Amino acid sequence: MAVVSLALLLLLLRQPLSNWLWPDTRAQQLQADAAHALQQGQLTSADGRGARELYAAALALDPDRSDARQGMAKVGQQALVQAERSLQQRNYQQAHRMIALARELAVPRARVDALEQRVREREREAGDSGVDKLLAQAAGARKAGVLDGGDNAALPLYQRVLALEPNRTEALEGREDTLADLLQQARTSLDRGELAEASARMQRVQAADPGHVDLPDALAGLNRAAEQRRARADAELRRGRLGEALEGYRSVLAAMPDDERAKRGIAAVANAYAGRSQRYAGDFRFDDAENELAQARRVDGDAPGVAAAEQRLVQARQSQQRYGQKVPKAERQRRLDQLLSDAAQAESRGDLLTPPGDSAFDKLRAAQSMAPQDPAVRSAMQRLLPAAQRCFESELRGNRLSRARECLDARAVLEGDGPAVRDARRRLAQRWIAVGDERLGAGELSAAQAALVAARELDPQASGLGEFADRLRRASAAN
Q1: Residue 75 placed within a domain
Q2: CB within 8 Å of 38: residues ≥ 6 apart
Q3: Closest by alpha carbon to 204, among 32, 3, 403, 363?
Q4: How many structural domains are present in the chain?
Q5: Which of 96-110, 122-136, 145-159, 304-318 has the lowest mean pLDDT?
Q6: Domain that holds residue 124
Q7: pTM of the complete model
């Protein structure tokens, strides 16, 4: 099934955009290709071009296609036909493969079991199964280190013997030793930091023998390695090494696809790229802002920071256009001087960050849109930083969290996204989680959801965020 799923994924990912825009047309084409493959006797293929994979792809695009389901049933019936033919040709390995395919496609069990029994009896009667020969081949494959991955590897050979003679001692012991060898290879992969490869080997052992004595320790080792890799990725993220952090989180997900902390880490990387985009937009460095925003989208287009960065970029462009980059130089200078004068007056009145539009901050942002590198503008912006810092701390103490977020956004523009700003984001996120938890306890699910969104936008890795989200999800489902 894993090979089939991978083949199906590869087939879908390499289709052109039009296939996603007109899925019905694409589903019809896939079904026609599947019917042709079925007619040619190509029932399954690892490259996704077998009838089974093509019908599955059509159903993935349109699960209600009854004709595709009927086609899938025909594949199962044809698998039995091919199994019968392989039996007559004494190709027992192929017969077993086709029987397995028929079983996966829900052909009536009685028919499948009956044919499988005939294959086993013919193998024994003809002596072609060569159990002793298979055991010798399996032992040789294990000695050569060919443990799994093909019909002539040790594990599938031992399993084939056990399918014929379930109590054959040599096969039981050989399979046990082979599984132990696979687990040792998995440990070696862990030592090399190859989490996905180690996980794949452990899953193979788990599928063959869920109760293998060495499996719990191996899985515990995988969990420890994943925890260490996540911790390193977290550290890289804190240092701003986003590429390295992303690589670490993705390596964890490759081994453990359901790991929520790694998923949140990837969202945090996307938010960090989006934060860089916002800072560049704030400085009207639009090419740099676009590049960082594109990185954020590639990492996780659904991360909350991406939409905020897109909005910030639009606003920055509009601001630059509003204050006239294409007006004559003398007029631009006159406007710049006026904005600086208005900002100074607002500063003298104490209107540093409010009211909107008339604050010193807003006037200087307008001036910055006209002349991002002007020394007078940069100097004036720096004078506002202490005010933004005090504003944030004051609003946070007063639990006025929306206002604290506004002050923090202004502070990020003035100060940049350094450690102090990131720490402020974590503190504000923690406060939102506390508020959300309180609202959840009062049964106010909408307010709790709003708090969750606010906290997640600030810090997707905030301590307690995942647990709060789980509680809110359970409460919403029960409501």
Answers
A1: yes
A2: 51, 71, 74, 75, 78
A3: 3
A4: 1
A5: 122-136
A6: 1-128
A7: 0.52
